[in-house]
């Protein structure tokens, strides 16, 4: 098993940091392209161990940091560039993912491409498949069914517009992370591109939805919405599981938590069966 790390050009001026894990003798099941979620990064918690686990099952597992997620290639697990974080938006992430897929297609031309994302990364994956026919399957873990209904309304939105900045507290790092008003403007300007219902309703490829019944961050209703819009999708609800399936950062165990192991096993089975 080998792991390689590199950077490619991002959608604006910041680079995308990529790593991929593979076994040259056993890699016939496709390239899994993993997208992290909000306030996330490619090496969060158990993601490296998940990559190794998938590789043992015959996949090439690629993960990356969105170019404006607030980390840098030099500091890939710390939010050292809060200005970039504040200037991130969904359009940049969709455009970043296209560039990653371009690189994958060039590097692994004979492999099928599977999009896999957690939380917001799952939403981006669902949206991207609607505009890129290179994608063969989608897996979304704990993902929202609507990105725009999380935007502030009324006085909060007016204050954000006036000050140009709002803050999101990161409980793990104790940072107040800025979000500039451009995020709101991008959402409004690209509402159709960001319409998950539309993207999922027209999906013609296999889709697995995995969600915890006790997810406090993205409620189980959102998984049910996605399933309702695409009856062909497979929905797997993990009883009593939370938003991260009991994963944590840092993750130092050699054994996955029970809920996370279930999510991994159902995902690998789905990908091999479809």
What fold name goes in the CATH topology slot? Rossmann fold
Unreliable runs? none
- Text of the CATH class: Alpha Beta
Fraction in helix = 25-40%
Average predicted local confidence, pLDDT = 98
Taken in chain order, the helices and strands follow as EEEHEHHEHEHEEHHEHEH
The separation of the N and C termini measures 25 Å
The outline comes out as globular
Q: In angstroms, what is the radius of gyration?
A: 18 Å
Considering the protein shown, what is the CATH homologous superfamily?
Alpha/Beta hydrolase fold, catalytic domain
Give the number of domains: 1
Overall structural class, as computed from helix and strand content, comes to: alpha/beta
What would you say the CATH architecture is?
3-Layer(aba) Sandwich
* Percent of residues in β-strands: 15-25%
β-strand number: 10
Largest sheet: 8 strands, mixed
Q: Looking across the biggest beta sheet, what order are the strands in?
A: 1-2-4-3-5-6-9-10
